Amino acid sequence: MSAALFAPKVSRSVAVVGSGFVGASCALHLQRAGYAVTLLDKHKAGSPSQASYGNAGTFAKYANIPINKPGILWDVPGMLANPDGPLSLAMCAHLPTMGPWGCRFLAASRKGRVGQVSQSLSNLLGDAESGWHTAFEQADIDIDRHRVKNGCLYLFGTESGWEAARRETATRRLSCNVAELSPNEIAQLEPALASCYVGGLHFESWHLLNPGSLVAGLVDGFESRGGRIIQQNVESILPGHGVVLDSGEFFAAQEVVVAAGAHSKTLAASVGDKIPLDTERGYSIFFSGHSHHVSRPVGWADSGFYMTPMADGLRIAGTVELGGLKAPMSPGRCDMLERSARKLLPGLPSRSPEKDWLGFRPTLPDSLPVIGRSLVAPGVTYAFGHQHIGFTLGGVTGKLVAEMVAGHTPSVDVHPYRPQRFSEYIAGESFRQTSPRSRPTV
Questions:
Q1: Which end of the chain is more exposed for a tag (fewer CB within 10 A), N or C?
Q2: Which residues are CB-contacts of 321 (< 8 A; sequence separation ≥ 6)?
Q3: Using one digit for the tens of pLDDT, what is the confidence trace for 179-226?
Q4: Which range has the worst mean pLDDT, 71-75, 144-148, 257-261?
Q5: What is the pLDDT of residues 131-181, one digit of tens each?
Q6: Which CATH number does 1-68+108-146+207-275+365-442 carry?
Q7: Can you tell me the distance from the alpha carbon of 192 to that of 196, in angstroms, rounded to the nearest whole number?
Q8: Would you say 393 and 383 are in contact if contact means Cβ atoms under 8 Å apart?
Q9: Is 242 left (phi over 0), alpha (psi -120 to 50) or beta?
Q10: According to DSSP H, which parts of 229-310 are helical?
Q11: Rounded to the nearest 5 degrees, what angle is found at the Cα of 380, between the Cα atoms of 374 and 382?
Q12: Helices (H), ranges, 92-196
């Protein structure tokens, strides 16, 4: 190993691995707390290589219903058989290795466990917006230049899907205001939509005009405040000392925060933490210059995607494909998104195929992120596994990470998100019931 070429000369140094929304937030909160922070990522912030780039851009305070649901096992064959359904498989060498992850996922789909997870998500979502306000201020970001605040629609094409969604409305209201809409009310809000829905939900929410631009702005703001950026890949962690880069060089840091999204598993394993992180592969397509078709994000439950009007066009983003990080893009999933979008908006022009995109959502089998200190590696803190809501939960995650690194009691009980939970149970240990403001000792 070569000399510590990048070794910082300032005490209280922190290396944050990953420059997506979660990593950028962690870096900004830590910087605000007085740490000498370095952000490490082989990709430039906001580039298409990041999951933070091509997502639907919704601030999803309503996302407190986990993917895990009782009886989901019996729904999977039907979803896989439907070419326009929300779930598909990438036939690759990684797929058979997901067996243990799948077993944990099913174990976490029991009714009682789903309720616990939903409450834990609600606790994080309660601080989601305030967590971002601090990061935006630190980065000198005027968020109102990046967003539109007119809510979000989620539509259902079948009576069974609509009735199931209505049964969950009370839970959604734990996190945000929700209104149930009739077809006539939906048509008044979005008259360009084809009348193929039986009902829908309107969430009080907002969306981004360009997610990639915002995350790049956050990192630029971090750098302008004296933050350091190293555009290299981190291969492993030396707890209490720093990280090893893929060049073989060593970067010294007293604390390391792992916020590398779907790529975090191997970094945790390098210090002895076995965390069952896997990947939901998500797709998006783009219709350049045609954002006017809808005025707000419109979700379509039948195929699991959102149509979001953005600064320079309409993005169609979503679906879940299982198959890990290495399988190539499946063009059929992009075609499915276009086909399904045209069902709702028949007047769409041809898509911009050069903007077809595949990203990797970091997902844990119980639908909760890992936010917490390693018990086996001093000075290592984890912040990953936010599945579909990395942007939404990025702000509060950064806030909690800064509190834990400083040795303070976290402002949200982090017990449900602790990294060691997977060595304690298969996927069902009872969480102690806490309110969002309970303050346990870490």
A1: N
A2: 87, 88, 89, 90, 280, 281, 282, 283, 330, 333
A3: 999 999 999 999 999 999 999 999 999 999 999 999 999 999 999 999
A4: 71-75
A5: 999 999 999 999 999 999 999 999 999 999 999 999 999 999 999 999 999
A6: 3.50.50.60
A7: 12
A8: no
A9: left
A10: 264-269
A11: 70
A12: 99-107, 111-125, 128-138, 159-167, 169-172, 183-189
Q: Which sign, positive or negative, has the C-alpha torsion 369, 372, 378, 380?
A: positive
3-state secondary structure at position 183: helix
**Helix and strand totals (H; E) in the chain:** 13, 21
Is it the case that residue 392 has pLDDT exceeding 50?
A: yes
Q: How far apart are CA 306 and CA 294, in angstroms?
A: 11
Residue identified by tokens 């590398």 is 260
Give percent of the chain with pLDDT exceeding 90: 85
CA distance 284 to 261: 18
| Alpha carbon separation from 292 to 296, 304, 348, 367 (Å, rounded) | 9, 22, 11, 34
Count the neighbouring beta carbons within 10 Å of the beta carbon of residue 105: 22
Would you say 153 and 190 are in contact if contact means Cβ atoms under 8 Å apart? yes
pLDDT value for 425: 55
Q: Contact, 317 vs 284, CB < 8 A?
A: yes
Average pLDDT over every residue of 292-312: 95
Q: What SS3 class is residue 270?
A: coil
How far is it, in rounded angstroms, from Cα 337 to Cα 217?
29
Model confidence at 435, pLDDT cuts 50, 70, 90, reads: very low
What is the token pair recorded at 308?
């979001």
The DSSP bridge partners found for residue 225 are none
Rg, the chain, Cα only: 21
DSSP H or E run through 299: strand 298-300
Mean pLDDT of the chain: 91
Q: Which two tokens stand for residue 386?
A: 């936010």
Look up tokens 């243990």; give the residue.
100
Residues 316 and 307: beta-carbon distance below 8 Å: yes
Say how far apart CA 274 and CA 337 lie, in whole Å.
35
Provide CB contacts within 8 A for 202, sequence distance 6+.
151, 152, 153, 178, 179, 181, 189
Phi (first) and psi of residue 105, to 5 degrees? -60, -45
Q: Which amino acid is at 211?
A: P
**Nearest-5° angle of CA 296, CA 297, CA 298?**
110
Q: What 3-state class would DSSP assign to 256? A: strand
5-45, pLDDT tens digit by residue?
444 444 489 999 999 999 999 999 999 999 999 999 999 99
Q: Is the pLDDT of residue 434 over 50?
A: no
